[in-house]
Amino acid sequence: MTIAYYTFTILLAFCLLMFLYWPWIEMKIQAESVSRSPANLQEYAELLQTQDALLENLKDLELDHQMEKISDIDYQELREKLLQAASDLYKKIDSFESGCTLIMSIQNDLSKNEADKSI
Amino acid sequence: MTTQAFWPGIGEICISLSLMCAIYAFFTSLIGARRNSDRMVNSANRAIFGCCVLISLAVFVLWFCLLKDNFLVRYVYSYSNREMPTIYKLTALWGGQDGSLLFWVWLLSLYSSAALFFHRNSDRPLIPHMISVLSFIIIFFNALIIYSDNPFELFPFAQDNGRGLNPLLQNPSMAIHPPCLYLGFVGMAIPFAFAMSALIGNRLSVRWIAASRIWSLIAWFFLSIGNLLGAQWAYVELGWGGFWGWDPVENAAILPWFTASAFLHSVMIQEKRGMLKFWNMNLISLSFCLTILGTYLTRSGVVQSVHSFASSSIGYWFLVFLGLVILFSGFFIWKRRKELKSDSIFESFLSKESAFVVNNIALVGSAFIILWSTLFPSASELITGTRIIVGPPFFNKILAPFALVLLILTGIGPVIAWRKASPRNLKTNFTLPIIAGLLTLLVLALLKIYSWYVLITGFGAGFVICTIIMEFYRGTRARMIAHHEGALTALFRSSLRNHRKYGGYIVHLGIVFIFVGIAGSVYKEVHEFTMKKGDRVSFGSYSVVMKGFDTRDNVNQREDYALLDLYIGDKFVKQMKPARFFYKQQQQPSTEVDIYPRLKEDVYFILGFYAPFIQQATIRIILQPFIIWLWLGGLTLVIGGLISMLPSFGLKLESSRIKSA
Questions:
Q1: Count of pairs with CB atoms under 8 A, one residue in A, one in B
Q2: How far apart are CA A78 and CA A86, in angstroms?
Q3: What is the pLDDT of residues B602-631, one digit of tens each?
C-alpha cells in the first residue's frame, strides 16, 4: 500500500506539472497566430460589450416610454444621448473591423506566401 | 500503510497539492498580469482548474471513507456511524467543522473554475487579477484545512463504530439547506473577484458590472433558498412552532442576503444612469466581508447558538483574513474613487433612482441592525462582564418598520419614472395600486383585524400585487400594439425578452407572499392539553380525539407516536401522529411534529411530555395562520430567480461576434 501511495502521489504531481506547463508547449506550436493582436482583440471585445449595454439601455428606454414610465421630454433627451453614444461607438467598431479585416488579409497573404515557399 | 489509512492519505495529498497549485496560481497570475504574458495567465488559470480537480478528489475520498465506515478517520468517527442511512452519511460531509471547510473550498474551486471558463473570452482583461483574488481565498481555506482542521486526521487505531451525526441534522431539509447556504456564501466570492479585478486593473467599464450582477444573482438565489429551507427546517424539526428565532447563526446567514439584494437593485441605477458606482463597489465588498464574518461567527464560539460548530482557534484565522480583505478592498476602492464618480446626478426625490436609494438604505440599515444586535451580547460581555441577550421581540419590533418600507418600495420602484416623476406619471401608475391597497385594508378591517403591522402589510400586499399585474398588462399591451401579436403570444414574448425584469417582478410577488406568511404569525394561537386514550378536546372549528399511542424500535432510534384524529366541525380529516424520537447512539431525544397544512392556517401538533406507563401525554397544538404563504412565497421567489437568471440572447450574440473576430 505504501508503494501504491507514493506512486499515486508522484503520478498526480507529474500530471499536474504537465498540465500547468502546457500553455508554454501549446503556444510554441501556435505562437504566431495567437500573439498577433491580443490587445486589439480585448479592445474590440470591450467595444462590443459597450454596444450590447447601449442597445439594452435603448430597448429598456423604449419599453419604459411605451409603459408611460418616463416623460416625453426626458425620453427624447435620453434617447438622443443614447443614439449619439451608439453612433460614436459604431464608428469606432467600423474602423476597428476594417482594420482587423486588413490585418487578417495581410496574415492570409503571409501564410499563403510561406506555404508557396515550402512547396 | 493499511488500506484504511491509504485513502485518507490520498485525500491529504490532494489538499496539499491543491494548496501548492493555488499559491502557484496567485503568483503566476500577478506576474502574468504585470508582464502581460498570456502563457503565465493561462498557466495560472489552469492551476485553478487543477485546484478544482484535486479538491474534488479529496471530497470524493472523504465521502468514500464515510460510506465505507472508515472509523480510523477521526472525522468519520465523529459524524457518522454504521446505522446511519446512506443519505446522512453523505450529508455528514458538511455536518462537522473540518468537513464543512473542505466542502466550502470545494464549492469555491468549482465556482472559480466555472467563472473563469465562462468569462474566458468576454472578460479576458479581468481574468488575471480575478485569478489572483480567487486563488488568495483558496489559499486561505486550504491552509485552514491543512494546519487547523484536517478532516483526514487519523486515530492510532480504528474504532468499532462512530458517534453519528447530530439527530437534529438527520432531516431531509438538512440535505439541501447547508449546501444552498454554502453556495450562496461562497458564490459571493465571484462578484468580489470581478470587482477587485476591475479596481486593480482600472477596467471599470460596463463589463465588470454585468458579470458581477449575474454571479451576485446566483449567490443571492442560493442564499434565499438556503435561508428559506433553514426556516422550514426550524419549523418542522425544532418543534417550537416558529420558523425564525433570530439566532446568531441564522442572522449571520441572512446578513449577506440583505447587502446582495441592495446591490441587485442599485446595480440597475449604475447600468442605466451611470450612478452609484462607488456605492456598488462597497456593496460587493461588504457582501463578501459579511460572508466571512458570518463564517467567523459560526465557527469561533464568539456567539452562542444551537446551530454553531464547536468553538475553536479557527476564529482568529478568519479575523485576520477578514482584516486583510477589508484593508485590500478599502485601499483599492479609495484609490479608484475618482474613476468611480457618478455620471449623472439625482434630479428629484420622486424618481426611480431615489426609490432605489431608499430601498438600499432600508436593506443595508436592516443588515447593520441585525449585525449590531447579534454582536451586542458578546460586546456587552467584553465591556461590562455581563452578557445582555437581545431576544426575538427586539428584532421584530425594530425591523418591522424597515420591512414595511421595503414592502411598499417593492411596489413603487418598478413603476415610478426615471429622473423625475411628473404628476401625470404618478396618477397613471399609482391610482389603481392605491385603490387595491385600500380595498385590502377594508377587507382586513371587516375581518376585525386591527394590528397595525398586519394592516400595513395588507395594504402593501394589495398595492404591490396590483403594480405587478399592471406591469405585465402594460408590457403585453405595448408588444401587442408594436408587433400585432395576440395577448398570450405578446405576454410570453415580452416576458422572455425582458426576462430579467419580469423575473424580478415574480420575485417581488414571492416577497409579498412571504410577508403575508410572516404577518399571519401575529395571530398565532397556542393550545396545550393533557390527554389520554379516548379524550376529546376542541379549539376554534377543530376537535381532536386521542386514539392511543404507538411505539416503534429500530437499531438507530426508538419512536413514540401519539395517534390523534383531527376533525373540522364533525368531519374527520386526518389522523395526526406527532412523535418523540430517542436516538440511541447519541442518547438524545428529538421532537417530530405533525402538521395539517391549509391555505388559511396550519394545525401544528407537538407531542410534549409522554408517560408510557399511564398512557398519557401533553399535546401542544398551534394554529399558524397563513404560514403556507411563506413557503409558497419561497417557491415563487425561486421561480422568479430562475427566470431572471436565464441566459440573455444578447450575450450569446456578443460572444459569437468575438469568436468570429
A1: 135
A2: 12
A3: 999 999 888 877 788 899 999 999 999 999
